[in-house]
Amino acid sequence: MAYFDLICIGSGPTTIGCVSEVLKKSPEKKILIIEENPMSSGGLRNDCKMNWTFPVGFPETYWTRETAEPYLAVTRDFFVARGSEIKSKGDLSKYMQKAERLGVTLLNIEQSHLGTDGGIKLIHSIVDEFKSKGVEFLFNTKFTDYKKAADKIEISYTGESEGTATCTDLLIAPGRHGFETVKEIMAKHDLKSNDNFIDIGVRVETKRENYSIVNDYYDPKFIFEKHKTRTFCTNSGNARVVQEKYEGEEGEIFYTVNGHAYSAETEPNGMVNFAILKSVKFTEPLASGHLFANQLANLFMMAGGGHPIYQRIEDIRLHKRSSVEGEKNFDFQPTLKSAIPGDLTMCMPSKFFNAIWSTLKQLDTIVPGVLNPQTILYAPEIKFYSQAPVYLDEICFKLEEHVFGAGDGFGTSRGITGAFASGVRVSKGII
Prior knowledge:
Blueprint (H helix, E strand, L loop, with lengths): L1 E8 L3 H13 L5 E4 L14 E3 L13 H16 L12 H9 L3 E3 L3 E3 L1 H18 L3 E3 L2 E9 L2 E8 L3 E10 L6 H10 L8 E11 L13 E4 L4 E19 L5 E10 L8 E11 L7 H15 L5 E4 H5 L22 E2 L8 H17 L9 E8 L14 E3 L2 E3 L10 H12 L4
Parallel strand pairs: 1-2, 1-9, 2-6, 9-19, 15-16
Antiparallel strand pairs: 3-5, 4-11, 7-8, 8-9, 10-14, 10-17, 11-12, 12-13, 12-14, 15-17, 18-19
Helix pairs in contact: 1-9, 2-9, 3-8
């Protein structure tokens, strides 16, 4: 049975942050990275957008500004050295003044954007860099469980590679897509967690001219405190809406929506998309926020015949569903070709939809054009990243002795920079 000093589950930003720091301090350590997909996935692969200003990406449950700043500096140094440049911004004063009058906050965030194509190049370069330093990878391989064996941890895995291995330290960081893996591991090992917080919303798509703020600010971050909503993950240039595949509680397949864009080197398509998300913290007797979101996604799948659905602003105002026949009246078509025209209000709880609609009306006051009749709302957009464990040692995200859990799947981050910083923080408990 092969032995490693460190085994990492998942190959996304959290693992990259941890491994880069471990190699920096202890280059002799033997490291294995296990990834369920053919290549690294998550934010680095999908759009590769990075925010460099606290608190974006840093849940305040685990981070303060004072805690985050040094880790952000390490994160920034890593990515800037590998070609991630800070994007310039134009004059935001007119948007900020309008927002302030409405009680809305526009965060002024430093950002980088490599695009999906640039992100894939970055992933390949990091994998090659790690391999040159002796790190081993198993792709298309699913981590199944771990157990303590004497003074070592024994892990098992299946898939393209199948077997067991032992290690001194184990980092579990499967990302947002791995929330079911996280949930199973937490239950098997009787690790306590809080699963009562979810983000549910829509993906907005319209012509770039209808959301002109992106000419000055690539990914504008609006906070609508009254509605407990926010804008999230704006994409423009060569922008596309995509669907993401998940496996539910009973093994059923469902899809959520997301957005991405290619780098500035590609031909623009004149479109922009972004999410509006509403955050809800459930109280008793709800057993699981993830289960609630899972069931909501299943309802959308039922309405869309197994696909996400969309509705035009014009149809929402007329209280009617969007239809294939009605699409002939519009200048642009949905970039997510698998989405089905329908009625979002058939599936979206009013608490969420009413907040999102009110948010859109305020946003249209700040950036006129968002509520163009042709604008599309896709659903569901759901973020599964809040398992919120009760850590043995929160400083380094230690679940139990020599076992660490961090990243979006554990709720310690919400995006690339926070996830990488979480990995750096884990490394403090390993080195």
